[in-house]
Design brief:
It is a single chain. With 536 residues, the chain is an alpha+beta fold. It has 2 domains: 68 residues, 2-Layer Sandwich (GMP Synthetase, Chain A, domain 3), CATH 3.30.300; 332 residues, Thrombin, subunit H, CATH 2.40.10. Helix content is 14%, strand content 31%. Strands 24-25-26-29-28-27 form a 6-stranded antiparallel β-barrel. Strands 15-16-21-18-17 form a 5-stranded antiparallel β-sheet, with no helix packed on it. A 3-stranded mixed β-sheet has the order 3-4-5, covered by helices on one side. Helix 1 crosses helix 2 and helix 1 packs antiparallel against helix 4. The longest helix has 16 residues.
């Protein structure tokens, strides 16, 4: 029996052994394919109640909701203090004792969050977190069916449900949402609205309706000398083959199942000087590229993304994970070929193998089709005959300023070229600090300022799926610098040379043209879609 999933203490994957445990999975004797998630017709509210969304709520707040009267949730501040909401603050002493003994995550070392003396601070709540959760699950389907909706969120930092709306239709959509609240008997006082946030997949590929040209150029920040090295460019003569969406993942020269893996290597080549360089072995956090034929013009484009991390699937396939929208079409496995660092004959590293389909939601009369949702913007691609570094992430010289102020360094430190993954963080808590490494903006970090949002993204319609948007359920957000091409990059909790893998970067959040952070799909979400992943 082989232990597939390893998790950090207190993190989520509710497998057979419980939180923090791993599941014994037999090593298969044949390479079975990963099947798509169930396509049974059900809404996000039903998916949340019956599946991963409910498990994640239960892991974070379930026990405290049952054991503490009037418990309204908690979040962390910049110093690592836990802020707890209670309907009746007379229970403050009981809550402090309970959370200090049961919530190990709040005591976890956070080197950037000040000293070791961290407090539990009590605040007056207006709503119990369990009741907010029920209301949120009840209204999400209908709200995200509205044209002007952007996201819904159980906002534990404010003891409310938060709903994001497009600025252009803010008033009309808000009125429609309030009518829905009244019909569902959800108090209007339990809901807050914002109209100044937009979300976008950050890769200008064939998935998006429009590649947004309005994002500012990356702030150069503080760069190491290696950052000035000229970046490779794609080879146009290889374009037709690369854009065929029929790359082969069953390479007879590759032994996919032997143990140990002959392709593993921890020796980083001298040519791997930046996150955009050719790196063999291939490193997580470095530039990857694919080719896509633009639907309107027929021309071939070369979108940039970032390799998230190598992983073994439950059928023992050796793969790497990146963003689902970094492919010919999100949610459809087409065999998209991937190259590192650019599309060229000597750059091929693997092909799309499992891009889980969107689950069908409720019937949408406006489109005459089903709405679609899944938990992660992620796919798995099988390796070609190349060496790669398993359980490692490229390590630049240094990180950028906290938050969205500037990009980080992109030059890889030859004296200490990688982070080692030693654990997985199943889901984040509000207020925690997380880092990411991605080829466009390097190593940046910031604070988790929204958790488990259901977000709506526009996509390109197809004859099979005429609806022009999809929903990614239960996504998390970090207020850190990001730019196009960072999609798919690894997100992690930084503890020096070692890291706890938290997920992959999926999109840009902005106010007007100002970047305010990135979205990411947490490890628990990735495994809800892709199945158990071995990452170290």
């Amino acid at each position: 029996m082989q232990c597939i999933t390893r998790m950090a203490q207190g993190s989520l994957l509710l497998l057979a052994g419980g939180i923090g445990a791993c599941t014994d999975v037999p090593v298969p004797t044949t390479p079975d394919a990963i099947g798509p998630p169930s396509s049974a017709s059900r809404g996000i509210g039903q998916l949340g109640t019956q599946g991963h969304g409910q498990r994640r709520f239960e892991a974070r707040f379930g026990a405290a909701s049952r054991d503490l009267p009037g418990f309204g949730g908690y979040e962390f501040d910049d110093a690592g203090n836990m802020h707890v909401f209670l309907m009746d603050t007379a229970h403050a002493q009981r809550a402090r004792g309970y959370l200090a003994s049961h919530e190990a995550r709040w005591r976890r070392s956070a080197h950037r969050q000040g000293g070791t003396e961290r407090r539990i601070i009590i605040h007056q709540a207006q709503f119990e977190i369990a009741q907010l959760h029920q209301w949120h699950e009840l209204l999400t389907d209908n709200v995200l069916s509205m044209r002007g909706a952007v996201f819904t969120d159980l906002d534990e930092r404010r003891n409310r449900i938060a709903i994001g709306l497009l600025p252009a239709t803010y008033d009309a959509t808000k009125a429609a949402v309030q009518r829905e609240l009244d019909a569902l008997a959800v108090p209007r006082a339990a809901v807050t609205f914002t109209g100044d946030v937009t979300l976008a997949m950050d890769s200008c590929d064939g998935t998006e309706v429009i590649c947004d040209p309005k994002l500012p150029s990356p702030d150069p920040g503080t760069e190491a000398p290696a950052d000035s090295v000229a970046e490779p460019t794609p080879d146009p003569s290889y374009a037709e083959a690369a854009a065929s969406y029929s790359m082969q993942y069953d390479d007879p020269s590759v032994d996919y199942f032997s143990e140990p893996d002959p392709s593993f290597s921890e020796t980083v080549a001298a040519e791997c000087t930046t996150l955009s360089s050719r790196c063999r072995p291939v490193l997580a956090g470095t530039r990857i590229q694919y080719a896509v034929r633009q639907p309107n013009t027929g021309t071939i484009a070369y979108p940039d993304c970032t390799l998230g991390f190598p992983a073994r699937l439950s059928n023992w396939r050796r793969t790497f994970v990146t963003a689902s929208h970094c492919s010919g079409y999100a949610g459809i496995t087409q065999g998209t070929g991937y190259y590192q660092p650019v599309v060229a004959a000597n750059g091929y590293i693997g092909a799309e193998y499992s891009d889980p389909a969107f689950n069908m939601m409720q019937w949408d009369p406006a489109f005459g089709t089903n709405l679609r949702a899944k938990y992660s913007d992620a796919l798995a691609a099988v390796w070609a005959s190349v060496t790669y570094s398993f359980g490692r992430i490229a390590r630049p010289y240094g990180y950028g300023t906290f938050g969205t102020g500037s990009q980080g360094q992109k030059g890889i430190n030859p004296a200490n070229p990688t982070f080692r993954i030693v654990a997985e963080l199943g889901y984040p808590n509000g207020g925690e600090y997380l880092d990411k490494v991605a080829h466009s903006t390097g190593w940046t970090y910031g604070q988790v300022d929204a958790t488990c949002q259901n977000v709506r993204f526009n996509i390109r319609p197809t004859p099979e799926h005429p609806s022009d948007f999809v929903i990614f359920a239960c996504q998390d957000f970090v207020a850190a610098y990001v730019f196009g091409g960072d999609s798919g990059g690894p997100v992690f909790f930084y503890v020096g040379n070692n890291v706890h893998l938290a997920g992959i970067l999926t999109g840009v959040r902005r106010q007007s043209t100002r970047v305010t952070g990135f979205s990411f799909s947490a490890m628990s979400n990735l495994e809800a879609d892709l199945g158990p992943l071995q990452t170290f």
